Amino acid sequence: MTTTPTHDLTVTDALSVAIQRLQGNDDLPLPSYQTAHAAGMDLHACVSDDDPLVIQPGDITLVPCGFAVAVPVGYEAQVRPRSGLAAKHGITMINAPGTIDADYRGEVKVPLINLGKEPFTITRGMRIAQMLITPVPRTAWQEVAQLPPTDRGTGGFGHTGH
What is the pLDDT of residues 73-126, one digit of tens each? Predict the structure, then answer.
């Protein structure tokens, strides 16, 4: 049994997930944690060295990551924006978080949008998003005639003020 430390967890404590590096992408890192207590693993852009991807202001594009993953049944992979790209350049995801289901086996791609004022260039290996593998419980609905009351009741958007 291996007990090599991996950011304060031992390898035996980690969830084992099958990942396939797609052909021609041996130079790209697999998703990885950047700090000891990071929640998400960074995803890297799989674009051509010779032809970087330029996202014009207002444009949306799918950026491939060069791998496929077999998320275990009972889990999902959540893909989220990187806060630094959003804050500094206006680069974010159009559907955050995105979900990769346990039965999907295609290449992981990230739908990015440029909300900034300038074109933004995505280069090979650039960290473009982050991914978490999280449990997803199945839901069994229990239909009732009336929901139990709460102090909030039906107060919705903005009902508590600023």
Answer: 999 999 999 999 999 999 999 999 999 999 999 999 999 999 999 999 999 999
Question: Does the CA dihedral 9-15-21-25 come out positive or negative?
Answer: negative
- Residue 3 domain-assigned (yes or no): no
Residue 61 in any domain: the answer is: yes
Domains contained in the chain, number: 1
The domain in which residue 129 lies consists of 14-135
158 within some domain: no
CA distances, 12 to each of 7, 39, 135 (Å): 13, 18, 18
The 10 Å Cβ neighbour count of residue 126 is 18
